[in-house]
Design brief:
With 122 residues, this protein is mainly beta. It has no helices and 12 strands.
């Protein structure tokens, strides 16, 4: 079955960096668009970034553009989210997702990881 297992969350100070990882199994990793969503307390889940099947193209939400990147390592079936210059408003549960299309729409998500907490605070 499809499994997405995230790791790497934690507490970081404003301006700091953190890298999340997601190991995928149960499906051909190179045949799917992958992405990251997050849920800020009191808000709906929102798309952060997606990367193409090959990992060569990606897109970002305006709030993270220029600060986050989404490397996709095909040989190890691992998706990453590298987060730099973190802000308190980035505090959220971050989810690794499998997408059915090149979009950050919730409707395109067909598989979710369990989520990992990221807290940005001094």
């Amino acid at each position: 079955q499809v499994q997405l297992v995230e790791a790497g969350g934690g507490l970081v100070q404003p301006g700091g960096s953190l890298t999340l990882s997601c190991v995928a199994s149960g499906f051909p990793f190179d045949q799917y668009v992958m992405g990251w969503f997050r849920q800020i307390p009191g808000q709906e889940r929102e798309g952060v970034s997606w990367t193409a099947k090959s990992g060569l193209n990606s897109a970002y939400a305006p709030s993270v553009l220029g600060r986050f990147t989404i490397p996709k390592d095909l040989p190890t079936n691992t998706l990453y989210l590298r987060m730099n210059d973190l802000k308190p408003e980035d505090t959220a549960i971050y989810y690794c997702v499998r997408l059915t299309f090149y979009t950050l729409s919730l409707d395109a998500v067909d598989a979710w990881g369990q989520g990992t907490q990221v807290t940005v605070s001094s």
